[in-house]
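Chain A, query sequence.
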Amino acid sequence: MRKLLVIGIGAGNPDHMTVQAISGLNQADVLFIPDKGEKKNDLAELRRQICDRFVTNPKSRRVEFDVPVRDLPVEDGPAPSYRSTVDDWHEAIAAIYEGLIRDEIAGDGCGAFLIWGDPSLYDSALRILERVRLRGNVAFELEVIPGITAVQALAASHKMALNRIGDSVLITTGRRLTEEGMPDNAGSAVVLLDGKCAFNTLDDKDVVIHWGAYLGTPDEILISGRLGDIGAEIEQAREEARRQKGWIMDTYLLRKPE
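Chain A, predicted structure.
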């Protein structure tokens, strides 16, 4: 039976690669590298650099594939519309994954997908592969190799603990932060997938924010302080970074005052 590895490769720094992840790369006959277009070529290039640095298996080969673009404007619409759009997007990617597994991996071979951060946290690869499995057209064994997440990289770069003593931490998205605000049952919230600076929607400007972009890379940007004092600075820095690179990957932690 075909074997498929889903390997977490860290938040952007090749040094985030674990021994297990490196072993997985060298176990695979085929390494799948997604291409998200010219504006995000840096993301594919980093995967290539990781392969160049760590892969020593002479039989290994790379297969690059195009990733369909999701219709982003629907994020402004109601939740059902958003979920429907994401579902359609995942279905299109599932068809691509199925073809890659069927056509590129031998019947007893091994392939690997290289996933930013950790496959279990706000990444859709595992859900999409489950769609492929349920289709029943191609059988495969699955192994997941964890990686360092942006959440861990953010805490490390800001030299802080994620939680306060005896307190909870919520991991959420920019969309949910806009809809729900800071959680009542957690003193800290880590926000991912925020393309619109949702922290600006919070009424409490005494919340402390620790923000980071391109974490662990030479382009890393870090800003922290009272939200009311630096919210506009973060928004400006984020927009300038996006303009220069054509894309941005960022996250932040919000903490209620003591």
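The mean pLDDT is 92. The first strand starts at residue 2 and ends at 8.
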